[in-house]
Amino acid sequence: MRKQMPPNRPIFTISCGIAAKVWIVYSRLRKIQRPWLIVQLISGDGKFMQSFVKILLGQIGLLTFIAFLGTLSVQGAGNSQPSERLLHVHILDPKGKPASGIVAELKTADRAEIGLPHRMDYQTTYVTNRDGKFTVRFDLHDFWDRQTTSTNPLPGRDKLGGRYLVVDPSTTHSGAVSPRIVNSPYPDNYFRNEWGSAIPLGSKPSRVTMRLRKGIEVEGVVETLEGKPVPNHSVQIQHDLHAGTHTGYGAELWTTSTETDRKGRFHFHNVHPVQFEMAAGGSWVETILNGKSIKDNVGRIPVATDAKSMSIVVRLSEGKKYRYYGRVSNEAGKPVTGLRISFGVSNPRRPGDYEDYQDFEHVETDSDGKYQYFNDVPWLRFIKFGKTDFLPRASAESQLPPGKYDYVLNSNGKTIR
User: Which tens digit of pLDDT belongs to each residue from 51-65?
Assistant: First the structure.
């Protein structure tokens, strides 16, 4: 694109041009009227002045018109926009050398397009050249144009972009994922996650370097809290592109499942060495991660930068054995009977998004106002009374341990203590 001329450049150009033309006209007339030049200029000789002014005005007019056209051209060049947005991609092998012949796929992770029909009239698969490079071309799109339909879901057409370049694992590496590609004016770190700071697309070409990584070995054991191995138990791991959907699902990557052997052991090979997600049942209450005990379901497993292997012990509770109980009475001390009590159940203890297990369980008080509930994990999000239809997102740690909880309600059914 042509560089835009500074705003004061056209005025400077016109001024210099006028001065030059004045000197040219003056020099020509001076050659013709040399002996009488000064006298004629001072006395205002009619013919001389008429010739001088006519030629001068003609030259100035022509120069001004040319300069005006130039100014329009400069402004047009300055206001023009590229018809597309470019992302130059460079892929390196695990040793840091250019990787040729590598296939990368452009995947969507925007909640507006999850599950919608996939159009095939634009390129989604790219192959690196001998220098390990290729270029992705995106449609130009107005960020503020909030489209609600996907009749034309071209790359870059959705509100923020929400796309990743993904290289699937092979026998020589565990794959690679670019940071999120966004059609957004926000800073790079606005959409930062385990894949890095987001790549904003703009009028100038953006660039990203992706490096293929050696995979790590993930092994572990599933056992009870008493240390008894749990055989034939399903364990699943996956990576996430963060779709932002209400459920948390929709952008899973490289999902792999296995079952424990008779000693409760499991093993995953060639796992990409960034944070991954793990699922091993709703009664998962304790995790031993690389020798460190955590009293929680650690569904998101962090990976150290230099890790080559990981050891994970998953400890499950057996049955609903964590008791919550108490009595509900009114201000006069009389029992409140037949009252519906809701228990906010969550696993893990500190939920990350809607994909985590969150639910309600219900009981009613008996004729003496008493209740009890048995949970399969030793924590609850809340205990509430009356109708509960909406499941709010759990953004804080569940704080209620098993035990006795007595409540006193006023005449409006509100908790006093």
Answer: 655 665 666 666 666
User: Does 216-316 match 322-409 in CATH topology?
Assistant: yes
Contact 362, 412 (CB under 8 A): no
Listed in sequence order, the residues at least 6 apart from 341 whose beta carbon sits closer than 8 Å to its beta carbon are 328, 362, 363, 364, 365, 371, 373, 383, 384, 385
Number of C-beta neighbours around residue 230 at 10 A: 18
Identify the CATH number of the domain defined by range 322-409: 2.60.40.1120
Distance separating alpha carbons of residues 87 and 200, to the nearest angstrom: 10
pTM across the whole model: 0.68
> What strands, in cross-sheet order, belong to the sheet with 300-301?
252-259, 234-240, 276-279, 300-301
Q: What is the DSSP string of 271-301?
A: E-SS-EEEE--TTEEEEEETTEEESS---EE
Residue burial 292-324, b: 16+ Cβ < 10 Å; e: rest? eeeebbbbebebeeeeeebebbbbbbeeeebeb
Cis omega (within 30 of 0) for bond into 200 = no
Residues forming beta bridges with residue 171, ordered by sequence position: none
Separation of first and last alpha carbons in the chain: 71
Q: Rounded to whole angstroms, how far apart are CA atoms 366 and 159?
A: 53
Q: Does domain 84-211 have CATH number 3.30.930.10?
A: no
- Give the model confidence (pLDDT) of 263-280 as tens digits: 999 999 999 999 998 988
Q: Which CATH class is domain 216-316?
A: mainly beta
For tokens 């590229």, the residue is 82
Domain ranges of the chain: 9-79, 84-211, 216-316, 322-409
Q: Residues of the chain whose pLDDT is less than 50? A: 1-9, 33-39, 41-44, 74-79, 114-121, 142-159, 354, 389-397
Q: What is the DSSP letter of 355?
A: T
Cβ burial, residue 363 (10 Å; 0-12/13-18/19+): middle
